[in-house]
Amino acid sequence: MDAKERGISGLDLSQIFPTEITFKILGLLDVVAVCQCGQLSRKWRDQVTEYLRTVLCLDFAPYESILTENGLKHLLMYTSNLRVLHLDSCWPCVTEENLFLIAKNCKKLSVLTTSRCKGVTDAGLEAVSRYCKELTELDLSSCFTISDAGVIALGERCSALRELHVSSCYGVTDKSIGVLAKQSCGLTELDVSWCFYVTDQSIKEFLSPSCKLELLRIKGCTVSEGLISKLMAKGIVVNNFF
């Protein structure tokens, strides 16, 4: 390699390109590569920090085996404009503390998915319900530690919520689903499959004319055929098979 080639290979592109070009380059990379760029130099770190403030969607599900609790905590400090956050199966890093950070730092969130994350708690959901007022879609499937308290907080505070998945959340019962039916009238899709304590008592509340529910998944719930027929007559698609 001659002197000219060595000079080119040693260039810090973040010092050559304007910010908008650097952001376009970062936008072509996955989240792991973006984080690695932030370790190249102080200039790159500053550029990555500013770039993260413009990011609208982050999907960590493909990196669930390498994302750490502290790594997620660091990223959440700079994602105030985030609209969509996928953390499915990222159970090592989705803790109650990080849920608090998501709630306080990502107040513009519209979509949050944390399925199969055992660190999701009622207290964390209460924080999300308090700060994330624009939330429209939430997936809590197989978050085994949550109970009625967390779902009730969502029903009472998240008026924009349209889609909620709580399948295999065994602490969810008629108590919270009844609140959802009465408080979250804009809800269009609900999955309570394998919530064994959800029965006719709460599901019948979705027959109310004010409810806008379109799709209901109830596999594994104790819901009578008669009520299912009434729900379907109202125009609700009832999925009782998977």
TrEMBL record:
GO cellular component terms, A-Z: cytoplasm
The answer to whether keyword Oxidoreductase applies is: no
Q: Which domain of life is it from?
A: Eukaryota
InterPro entries recorded = F-box-like_dom_sf, F-box_dom, F-box_LRR-repeat, FBXL15_LRR, Leu-rich_rpt_Cys-con_subtyp, LRR_dom_sf
Keyword Cytoplasm on entry: no
The residues covered by the F-box domain are: 18-52
Q: What is this protein called?
A: F-box/LRR-repeat protein 20
Instruction: Point out the gene that encodes the protein.
Output: Fbxl20
